Amino acid sequence: MLVFSFLFGLTIGLGVWICQMVQLRRLIGKIPPSLKSQPSDVALPLIPRLRHEIAELKQQQLYLQQIINNYQALLESAPVGYLQVDEENQMLWCNQQAREMLYVQRWQPGQIRLLLELVRSYELDQLIEQTRDRQQSQIKEWVFHPSCENAAAMLEQKPVVLRATSLPLSQGEVGVFLENRQILLEINQARDRAFSDLAHELRTPLTSIRLVVETLQDRIEAPLDRWVDRLMQEVDRLISLVQSWLELTQLETDPTLKLNRQPTEVRSLISKVWESLEPLAARYQVQLIYKGPENILLNADASRLYQVFLNLLDNSIKYSPFGGTITVETKILNVENNSSTKPTTPANLEVNIVDSGVGFAEADLPHVFERFYRGDQARTRDKTVETFSTTTVVGSGLGLAIVRQIILAHSGSIKAMNHPITGGAWIQFVLPEVMANS
């Protein structure tokens, strides 16, 4: 009986030991393959081997934590703001720059709170949701109005222009980089004010100089009179430059201030512009080709629209080769007809102006409507066939900028391209409020 009891207890003990060994081997099997011992370590006893692998896990954990700390230190000292939210729009992390831009006062590193509780910005929430839904980086610029618990302090806070660039992360998280554009906006406004003040101050002395030159023209004889004529041309160019700058500044400040909308027939307006440019076109033997409807009534400011066609056609003539052609094509867009002949929805007018020159350089296309942008020098007429001096600079660099502002004032759009067939410069703009056409 004693022997039977001994054997029974031994059997139970062996069974328990085998079960523990199986569980231990399962735990060891869960260790990542990258952390398992090398073949040379297989001979180690079980417990030392387990301790060795636990030590490697701790080392890798410390290494990963050090990498995280380094990235956080970089983002904390970055010159741009950065914040990160989880899939429920809870703030996970926010550096000092972002806290200052968004006026975040009730958040400390390590806290997880809803972004909406900390920052009252519909634009920022919308940007994050769009990034998460589309799984693509998004860019948005808006005027941010800080919110404060104290009403008196809220009156002292000034709105700032922010620009955010978001990117989708794993597990529904979103990271957002923030830039404060307010300083750049104020610098540009100060620059524009300085240029406008300077332009105002230049008008009086330039007018006086022109009167003096007019007096000299009647008193100086050939061959010296050509120098006075040249001086008159340069003075007129300066006066035109000053006037264009003042006009552009007024359009940017209040685009609709000078608009006098009235029914305007587009085809006849283009003909009037071409008549005024015909001497220049005849000099270079450039012809105009019109394609499109004849009678197009547009609710627009006729004088401003005249200025648009004048600047664009003048540029096309100057950059077209001798004997070249300029094509003006008009189209009526967004017209839906019912049983009657009248459109059921307002129509848009698309105007395409294509010259036969060398076109724009690819690097110039994003900048052709900027102030004083001269563009690639290759887009000029051959100097050997010019009758004027090679030192003469044609244009002020403000014509296309003024054209763009006039189009925007009419709630239209404009873009510059190169025509895929002719290779020439292609200006396309769209204006709303077509009243009738036949």
Describe this structure as you would to a colleague.
With 438 residues, this protein is α+β, with helices and mostly antiparallel strands. The protein has 3 domains: 75-147 and 157-181, PAS domain (Beta-Lactamase); 184-253, Helix Hairpins (Orthogonal Bundle); 262-337 and 344-382 and 393-435, 2-Layer Sandwich (Heat Shock Protein 90), CATH 3.30.565. The chain contains 11 helices and 13 strands. The protein has helices spanning 2-29, 46-76, 96-102, 115-118, 122-134, 151-156, 182-217, 225-253, 266-284, 302-319, 399-409; strands at residues 81-85, 90-94, 113-114, 138-144, 160-168, 174-180, 261-265, 287-291, 296-301, 325-333, 347-354, 413-418, 425-437. The strands form 2 sheets. Strands 7, 8, 9, 10, 11, 12 and 13 form a 7-stranded mixed sheet that branches. Helix 7 (182-217) runs antiparallel to helix 8, helix 8 runs parallel beside helix 11 and helix 9 packs parallel to helix 10 (302-319). The chain is elongated and about 145 Å long. The N and C termini lie far apart (120 Å). InterPro entries: BphY/WalK/GraS-like, HATPase_C_sf, HATPase_dom, His_kinase_dom, HisK_dim/P_dom, HisK_dim/P_sf, PAS, PAS-like_dom_sf. It is an enzyme of class 2 (transferase). It catalyses: ATP + protein L-histidine = ADP + protein N-phospho-L-histidine.
Please describe the topology of this protein.
Blueprint: H1 2-29, H2 46-76, E1 81-85, E2 90-94, H3 96-102, E3 113-114, H4 115-118, H5 122-134, E4 138-144, H6 151-156, E5 160-168, E6 174-180, H7 182-217, H8 225-253, E7 261-265, H9 266-284, E8 287-291, E9 296-301, H10 302-319, E10 325-333, E11 347-354, H11 399-409, E12 413-418, E13 425-437
Parallel strand pairs: 8-10
Antiparallel strand pairs: 1-2, 1-6, 2-3, 4-5, 5-6, 7-9, 9-13, 10-11, 11-13, 12-13
Helix pairs in contact: 7-8, 8-11, 9-10, 10-11
